Amino acid sequence: MNVKAEVLRYFDARAQAPLPGGTEEERLGCKYLDQGIVDSMGLVEMITSFEALFGIRFSSEDVQGYEFQTPGGLIGLIEKRLAEKGTS
Amino acid sequence: MPFVPKDVVFFPESGRWVAYNVFARTAVGLDASGLERLSRLDESASGSYKIWDVEWFSNEECSLFDPTGYRREPAKWPKERLLPEAEFMAELKKHAIIADDEASYLARFAPKRNLADRERFGNFHQRLGQHLLLERREKPAEWWLKQKFTADQGGVRKDTLYGAVQLPFLRTYFSEVLGPGSTALDIGCGNGFYANLMAERGAEVLGVDPNEEYVAFAGSRARKNARFRRAAVGEPGALDFVASGSIDFVYMSDALLFYFIPLGPKAPDLDLLLREIARVLKPGGRFASLEPHGVFYLSPWLGAPERPFTIVSEYRDKKFGTAPNPGRLLNAVLSRGFALSRAEELYLSETDAAECDARAKGFAAQFPIWHLFEFRKA
C-alpha cells in the first residue's frame, strides 16, 4: 500500500481545509493541528481510520509526538509501524 | 545553563525520590545519583542515570481519585530506564523538572493548542481530554458519568468521595429543604439521579439539561413526581417554559463553575442565568449551588494518609484548576440580587461508611472537596 498516497487522500477527503502549500513538500510539512486543518475530534477519527486502514496501533507517545504533527512525519511513522509489523 | 525551577519539590519514597513540579503537576522518579546530578547542573557529566516514569493521569478512574499525578508506591513503579546524560536531561526537561531558561519554561504554562499538544500543560479539562481520547480512546461525556455513578447509573459509586461525602450530605440537605408540595428545578440535571433524590423527598421536580441523551436517559428513570426536559441553559429563552414565581428550590451541581472557568473559549452568560433563576423562584425560594471547592478540588493529596497536606499553587488566577475561588463565586451571585442564607464546606464525617481508600478518606476528612452555598432572593 502506498502510505503517502493514502495519507494525502485522507487529508483531501476528510480534513476541514486543504493542506496549504504550492508544493508537495510544503503540504507534507504542514502543522495541520496548529493550523486548525484537523480539530480534536477529527484527530481521534484520523487515528482510528489509519489504524484500521494499515492494521497498526499508534501508542500515546506516537500521537503526542513531534512526527505526528505533520503529514510527512505521520507517513514516516506509519511506515515505521508497518515495517515493525512485517518483522514481528 | 539548565536550572531547576523553584516550582519543583522533592518527596522521599522508600529510598527513592520523586521530583515533582507543583504547578505543572509533572513528576519523575529518581535515585540518589540522579538527585545528586541535579545539584550540579553547572558541570558537564557523562554518566548514566536511572529514571522512573512515575507521572500518570491519576484521576483516571475518577476525578476524585488522587489528583496528585504521580505513582506513590515504588512497588508499583514501572521498571526504571537507565539513560545516558543527554537523554536523562531531555527527559527531565520534558517533565519540567529542569528548564533551559525562564521564558521557554513559563511559555509551557498555557492552554494546549490542540489535542496532541504535550508541550503546553493546559488545564485539567484539556489534560483529561488528552488522556481519555488519545490514551484510553474513550469519550469524555461517558467517562464523566462512569467516574461518578455505578455502571447501571442507578447509584453513586461508594468507592469515590462523591459517594462518601457528597451523597450523604445531599440526602440530609434535601430532606431539610424539600417535602411534599414543594417544587424544585435541577439545572444541569445530567442523568437525573439527584433530581430523583429530590423527588423521593416528595417534591415536584423538573430536571433540565442541554444534553439530549442525558435528558432521554433521565426520563426513562424518572420517579413519579420528576420530569425532565432538554433546555439550552444559559441561552436566552431557554427556561421560558418554567412559570415565573413557581419554584421553591433551584439546584445546580458542578455546573456554575463553567460560568467562571469555561470549557470553551467563551463563558456562558451568568447575568442571564441568575436573572432566570430569580424569575422562576417564589418569594423566599432558595437557590443552592454545590460546587467543587475552589481551593481543595484537584489539589494534590500529599503526606501520610492520616496526616495529609496539600500545596496550593494557584488561587486567584487559575491555569490548571477548574473551579472559581469561593469569594469570586459568592460576590458574583450576591451582586446580582441574591443574599446568602447558608454556606457549608463538605467533609467526610466519621459516620460515613466510606469505601474509598485511606488516602482519600484522610484528605476528605481534613479538607473540603466541595462547598454548598444557598441563596435567597434579596
Describe this structure in words.
The complex is a heterodimer of chains A (88) and B (378). With 88 residues, chain A is mainly alpha-helical. Chain A contains five helices and no strands. In chain A, helix 1 (3-14) packs across helix 5 (71-87). Chain A starts with a helix and ends with a helix. In chain B, the strands form four sheets. Chain B has a seven-stranded mixed sheet with strand order 8-7-6-9-10-14-13, with helices on both faces. Chain B has a three-stranded antiparallel sheet with strand order 1-2-3. Chain B has a two-stranded antiparallel sheet with strand order 4-5. Chain B has helices at residues 32-38, 85-94, 102-107, 124-136, 140-146, 161-177, 193-200, 212-220, 270-280, 326-334, 358-366, and strands at 8-13, 16-21, 26-30, 48-51, 81-84, 183-187, 204-209, 226-230, 247-253, 281-292, 302-304, 307-309, 338-346, 370-377. In chain B, strand 11 and strand 12 (307-309) form a beta hairpin. The longest helix of chain B is centred in the middle third of the chain and has 17 residues, at 161-177. Chain B has eleven helices and 14 strands. The radius of gyration of chain B is 23 Å and the shape is elongated. With 378 residues, chain B is an alpha/beta fold.
Number of beta strands of chain A = 0
- The residue-averaged pLDDT of chain A reads 90
The name of the CATH superfamily of chain A reads ACP-like
Which strands sit side by side, in order, in the main sheet of chain B? 8-7-6-9-10-14-13
Please report which band the strand proportion of chain A falls in: under 5%, 5-15%, 15-25%, 25-35%, 35-45% or over 45%: under 5%
How is this fold's topology laid out?
The complex is a heterodimer of chains A (88) and B (378).
Chain A: H1 3-14, H2 24-28, H3 40-54, H4 60-63, H5 71-87
Helix pairs in contact in A: 1-5
Chain B: E1 8-13, E2 16-21, E3 26-30, H1 32-38, E4 48-51, E5 81-84, H2 85-94, H3 102-107, H4 124-136, H5 140-146, H6 161-177, E6 183-187, H7 193-200, E7 204-209, H8 212-220, E8 226-230, E9 247-253, H9 270-280, E10 281-292, E11 302-304, E12 307-309, H10 326-334, E13 338-346, H11 358-366, E14 370-377
Parallel strand pairs in B: 6-7, 6-9, 7-8, 9-10
Antiparallel strand pairs in B: 1-2, 2-3, 4-5, 10-14, 11-12, 13-14
